[in-house]
Write a structure and sequence with these properties.
Blueprint lengths: L2 E5 L4 H14 L2 E6 L19 E5 L5 H11 L3 E4 L6 H6 L2 H23 L3 H6 L1 E7 L24 H20 L3 E6 L1 E3 L8 H10 L4 E4 L5 E6 H14 L5 E4 L4 E3 H15 L12 E4 L14 H7 L7 H14 L1 H7 L2 H11 L7
The structure holds nicotinamide-adenine-dinucleotide and 2'deoxy-thymidine-5'-diphospho-alpha-D-glucose.
């Protein structure tokens, strides 16, 4: 049985990945997560009695803890999801992004390197360190620019993107200098079950259900490429299994959408599900608010490498994935209630409370 140390596995993508590893891939999983506001233990409730899953509460910046986990769990692979991930928060308070995303990844790489160095020959050959990263490291595109490839130069524009770019460079260096068998994935915007509703899609769903304003930054023309979270997790699993050591793989949905179109599609979806809602048409709740500083205009991913070399294809279309996502938030009111805590309301007030239009 493959033993995977997952970091950040109580968050959005990490928890979907842990569930997939336990339910479909048969791997044993240790999940190291320091349980920030973005995590939710309800995400992994279904594994409560699973003898092949364990949660370790702690940070990737804690060297002594990392060492004891490597010694005791003896992983064959590390998959690093742990990060601060919200661009707006990185503009508001960049320090934690540097601490976790840069310093934390460095400590994890160091402990992985020391552990890997004392493995026997076969285990050394088979060990993998997979670093999960983002398309935001490549910066922003104009309307006619070709999509990002794995060789697009890094040009990160937000503190979040810069912190992820730094961590990607460290991972590359650990492969190049020490031979640590690393893999890096750079993915576009994920959506799906268990995403903290500070991010666009769940924020819009939950606000619309409550008849609250739907905040669209600037004129809503910014473009993102969207991928259903389980398709991202399948891609990460495939890279872990078959990816070529030292390589990076772009992952995306070939699904570019302007923000305003995403919001309108969600509104139409809710109009259909709730034909008698007093908020119908939900598009009447759309409110244009002050733009994000330094807001990247367009992301687009060329994912031919993972398609051609590893045979990956997404399983969901945007329409099917979005419908599943809306249904998940409707069917999981316990989960929704559990995140509506002090921290959630504090952020919403800080980010949107100042804008008279968003009140
Ligand atoms: P998330 O914010 O939902 O979850 C992050 C998790 O990491 C949380 O459970 C949190 O508690 C944990 N964490 C934070 N700091 C930690 C630390 N110091 N030690 C241990 N755990 C820590 O994030 P997500 O959206 O699931 O993203 C996961 C990874 O995927 C990140 O590395 C992110 O950069 C990358 N990514 C995200 C997207 C996206 O659209 N969400 C797209 C591409 C790449
Ligand atoms: O591209 C991958 C990245 O996607 C990940 O690396 C990040 O972790 C993840 O948060 C996401 O970053 P974005 O900034 O693109 O996601 P977010 O959901 O915050 O915003 C999506 C778009 O919607 C972006 O153009 C900003 C806009 N937006 C966002 C919010 C929260 C709004 O118009 N209104 C909002 O209230």
């Amino acid at each position: 049985m493959k033993r995977i140390l997952v970091t950040g596995g109580a968050g959005f993508i990490g928890s979907n990945f842990v569930l997939m590893q336990r339910k479909d891939k048969g791997a044993e999983v240790a999940n190291l997560d320091c349980l920030t506001y973005a995590s939710n233990l309800k995400n992994l409730e279904s594994l409560a009695d699973d003898p092949h899953y364990r949660l370790i509460t702690g940070s990737i910046t804690d060297r002594a803890l990392l060492r004891s986990i490597f010694d005791e769990f003896h992983p064959g692979a590390v998959v690093n999801f742990a990060a601060e991930t919200h661009v707006d928060r990185s503009i508001d308070s960049p320090g934690t992004f540097i601490q976790t995303n840069v310093v934390g990844t460095f400590h994890l790489l160091e402990e992985a390197r020391l552990y890997w160095g004392q493995l026997g020959a076969d285990e050394r050959r088979d060990f993998r360190f997979l670093h999960v990263s983002t398309d935001e490291v490549y910066g922003t595109l104009g309307p006619t620019d070709p999509p990002f490839t794995e060789t697009t130069p890094f040009a990160p524009n937000s503190p979040y993107a810069a912190s992820k770019a730094s961590s990607d460079h460290l991972v590359r260096a650990y492969n190049h200098t020490y031979g640590l068998p690393t893999l890096t994935t750079n993915c576009s915007n994920n959506y799906g079950p268990r995403q903290f509703p500070e991010k666009l899609i769940p924020l819009i769903i939950l606000n619309a259900l409550e008849g609250k304003p739907l905040p669209v930054y600037g004129d809503g023309s910014n473009i993102r490429d969207w991928l259903y979270v389980e398709d991202h997790c399948e891609a990460v699993s495939l890279v872990l299994e078959k990816g070529q050591v030292g390589e990076t793989y772009n992952i995306g949905g070939r699904c570019e959408k302007a923000n305003i179109d995403i919001v309108k599609t969600l509104c139409e979806c809710l109009d259909q599900i709730f034909p008698d809602s007093p908020n119908k048409p939900h598009s009447g709740l759309i409110t244009f608010v002050k733009d994000r500083p330094g807001h990247d205009w367009r992301y687009a991913i060329d994912c031919s490498k993972i398609e051609n070399e590893l045979g990956w294809r997404p399983g969901q279309t945007f329409e099917s994935g979005l419908r599943k996502t809306v249904e998940w938030y409707l069917q999981n009111s316990d989960w929704v209630d559990s995140i509506k805590s002090g921290e959630y309301f504090k952020w919403i007030e800080r980010q949107y409370g100042q804008s008279p239009a968003a009140r």
